[in-house]
Design goal:
alpha+beta; four-stranded mixed sheet; 2 domains
């Protein structure tokens, strides 16, 4: 079992990274009409050699997008370009330290090309005024979206 002393460097590095991303969100809000951080997807550029970074992100598990307050977190190989409809809203490098190694992590923030889910409010629905695939797993099979929309 890991001691809390072993976890402190992870928390410090992740907190610094989240602060940097939050500052980019603030810049985006100032210069554009986008105010909901859930409408963003974050792309981290990680090479195969970056085992420490992979360990850092694996620590967050399925909660990684909630930690960074976005719809989705993606990982790219260096120079890989995501197939999205939009140009990056922000592109920057995070510089920090983790496990005695210097980190230089290229990060891109994109506007999601999905629609806002009417249940979870994340931009993961395939169509407007619909429920995303994740939320559908929690609803009964006979759930009628049109009735729900009429009652709103």
């Amino acid at each position: 079992m890991r001691s809390s002393k072993d976890l402190i460097p992870k928390f410090v590095a992740l907190s610094q990274l989240r602060e940097k991303i939050q500052s980019q969100y603030d810049i985006i809000k100032e210069r554009s009409k986008f105010s909901d951080t859930n409408m963003f997807e974050i792309y981290f550029e990680i090479s195969e050699k970056d085992a420490a970074l992979k360990d850092l992100f694996d620590f967050l598990g399925d909660d990684i997008h909630d930690f960074f307050k976005c719809t989705r977190v993606n990982f790219l190989k260096p120079k890989e370009v995501p197939q999205l409809h939009y140009a990056p809203t922000s592109s920057f490098k995070f510089k920090g330290k983790y496990t005695n190694a210097e980190i230089e992590l290229p990060i891109k923030i994109y506007r999601s090309d999905k629609h806002k889910c009417i249940r979870c409010f994340k931009y993961t629905a395939d169509e407007e005024n619909q429920i995303c695939p994740y939320c559908k797993t929690y609803l009964p099979e006979d759930f009628d979206i049109s009735k729900a929309l009429k009652s709103m």
